[in-house]
């Protein structure tokens, strides 16, 4: 397995690796030493071991929208190919699963005669019609979604005149049970205790992922908008992750003077990691102001939390359009075509009010709840994940 070197993408393929290894198949995880160290901590003492292989990489800084970390991985086609070639001598078939966004990094590996390659699509299937085709001889695609949400797009991709002869599976590891961690060493995050004391559906969760940093002006406007809305909130305020998450270099983001004191009765600011799935699942959470990364969109749909969409780059504008205009489970804070404009506090205040206090918001929250109910019924009770996973495992074992 070859992940893209960014936090959320790494987590997805690691979860998928754990699912595959639980079927008694050996799994080899290829990444930089730093990312493998991170993955090992998350994987924990799993009874189905994953074999980690450290790849040589150049020093990388923060994974900003220009993605220097991804560009560094483009140089790894040869070492990845050599490692796969070496493994291929000792087995009948190698199944190579790679993040679609770094397909170039496995360009040499897919040419090994007994390699069968599969793209893991970390994006919504809705997005794939806007991404150039690659490796037409790959055996199939794995989509990080479920068919109830993306089924018609997956079915289109399965048509030979559109997707070629590739098989298609919807296997989302996003909300799988957490990888084995020693929970005795983990305490409940304080923001969850704070949420326990709030009324149902009254809190706005504000978080923009691990690859986005705001300017001082943008941060000030968000703070003032939340304050002026007079709504309760949990705001995850942190800089974009460094490629080396173990680095101690952390920029403290400054807020307007006196802000935290003025809002302390109705809002909290979290300056480190926050348990997003648990926050979205909490009964007090009534809205999610988000950058619209696909993981965040999918998690909000599963939990029935409407989105205040603020796309920043990459697939996020299309995800925001999908959530707000197609699924009707969100509102735009700022549309993509207005990305050069500074979002003022008054805009943030108004969109929060539209969601939390107006008839428009009532309909959106109702729609989000309906989709969540249907999705969870199919995902858990209907056994979609098990069916798709068993189909994939049977296919690669043939």
TrEMBL record:
Entry's transmembrane regions: none
Pfam families found in the cross-reference section: Glyco_transf_N, UDPGT
Domain of life (superkingdom): Eukaryota
Organism: Phtheirospermum japonicum
Full protein name: Zeatin o-glucosyltransferase
SUPFAM superfamilies to which the protein is assigned, alphabetical: UDP-Glycosyltransferase/glycogen phosphorylase (SSF53756)
Family per similarity comment: Belongs to the UDP-glycosyltransferase family.
InterPro entries referenced in this protein's UniProt entry, alphabetically: Glyco_transf_N (IPR058980), UDP_glucos_trans (IPR002213), UDP_glycos_trans_CS (IPR035595)
UniProt keyword annotations, A-Z: Glycosyltransferase, Transferase
One annotated GO biological process: glycoside biosynthetic process
Molecular functions per Gene Ontology: UDP-glycosyltransferase activity
Start and end residues of each Glycosyltransferase N-terminal domain: 1-127
CDD domains linked: GT1_Gtf-like
């Amino acid at each position: 397995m070859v992940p893209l070197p960014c936090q959320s993408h790494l987590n997805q393929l690691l979860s998928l690796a754990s699912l595959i290894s639980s079927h008694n198949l050996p799994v080899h995880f290829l990444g930089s030493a730093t990312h493998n160290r991170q993955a090992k901590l998350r994987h924990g003492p799993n009874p189905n071991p994953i074999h980690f292989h450290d790849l040589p990489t150049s020093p990388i800084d923060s994974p900003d929208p220009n993605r220097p970390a991804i560009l560094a991985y483009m140089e790894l086609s040869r070492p990845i190919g050599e490692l796969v070639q070496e493994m291929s001598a000792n087995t009948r078939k190698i199944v190579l699963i790679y993040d679609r966004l770094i397909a170039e990094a496995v360009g040499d590996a897919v040419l090994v005669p007994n390699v069968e390659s599969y793209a893991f699509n970390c994006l919504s299937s809705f997005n794939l019609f806007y991404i150039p085709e690659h490796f037409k001889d790959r055996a199939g695609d794995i989509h990080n979604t479920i068919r109830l949400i993306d089924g018609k797009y997956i079915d289109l991709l399965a048509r030979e005149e559109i997707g070629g002869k590739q098989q298609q599976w919807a296997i989302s590891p996003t909300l799988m049970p957490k990888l084995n961690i020693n929970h005795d060493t983990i305490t409940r995050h304080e923001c969850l205790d704070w949420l326990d004391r709030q009324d149902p559906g009254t809190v706005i969760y504000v978080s923009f992922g691990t690859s986005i940093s705001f300017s001082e002006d943008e941060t000030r406007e968000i703070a003032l908008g939340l304050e002026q809305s007079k709504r309760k909130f949990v705001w995850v305020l942190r800089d974009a992750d460094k490629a080396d998450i173990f680095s101690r270099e952390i920029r403290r983001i400054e807020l307007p003077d006196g802000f935290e004191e003025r809002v302390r009765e109705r809002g909290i600011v979290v300056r480190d990691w926050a348990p997003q799935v648990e926050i979205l699942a909490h009964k007090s959470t009534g809205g999610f102001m988000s950058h619209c990364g696909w993981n965040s969109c999918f998690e909000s749909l599963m939990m029935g939390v409407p989105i205040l969409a603020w796309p920043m780059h990459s697939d996020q504008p299309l995800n925001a359009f999908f959530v707000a205009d197609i699924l009707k489970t969100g509102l735009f804070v700022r549309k993509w075509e207005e990305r050069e404009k500074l979002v003022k506090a008054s805009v943030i205040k108004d969109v929060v009010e539209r969601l939390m206090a107006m008839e428009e918001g009532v309909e959106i929250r109702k729609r989000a709840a309906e989709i969540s109910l249907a999705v969870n019924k199919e995902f858990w009770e209907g056994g979609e994940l098990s069916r798709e996973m068993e189909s994939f495992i049977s296919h690669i074992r043939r």
